[in-house]
Specification:
Layout (H helix, E strand, L loop, with lengths): L26 H12 L25 H9 L13 H15 L6 H7 L5 H12 L2
Length: 132
């Protein structure tokens, strides 16, 4: 499976909630990591997200970033002249705060619960690819 990057820069293909990763790990392990590092849990019906660029199940139905990109007809925030606006900064900060509080995190946990959400890195790579 190739990279699937959301409008905000999340790597859907690495996210445990993404439809392509269903069954990769147990709901118990997903909730262990999300609870420990991000302060929330998910229900089984939250798993199986199609990603925000296609029709189907969404993990964050009310995502303001998705709504903003869609209203401006951008494929992702990387196309926006206001990249790293307040909407995006709040998501980036939430992940950074979780990472700052995660001591002695295992490589496995980093890959599962942080790597999918390296938004700044992913959006900067897209910007570079599109020549912005």
């Amino acid at each position: 499976m190739g990279k699937t990057i959301s409008m905000c820069g999340n790597r859907c293909d690495l996210c445990l909630l993404y439809k392509g990763n269903v069954g990769r790990t147990s709901l118990k392990n997903i909730n262990r990591g999300f609870s420990m590092y991000h302060g929330f849990t998910v229900k089984s019906n939250d798993i199986g997200c199609a990603g925000c660029k296609v029709q189907g199940k969404q993990c964050r139905e009310d995502c303001p970033i998705r709504k903003c990109c869609a209203s401006r007809k951008y494929d992702s925030c990387a196309y926006c002249p206001e990249l790293f606006c307040d909407l995006l900064k709040s998501d980036i900060q939430a992940v950074q705060n979780a990472l700052n509080g995660a001591y002695n995190i295992s490589r496995e946990d980093y890959d599962a619960f942080f790597k999918p959400y390296e938004v700044v890195k992913n959006l900067n790579n897209i910007k570079k690819d599109i020549g912005r």
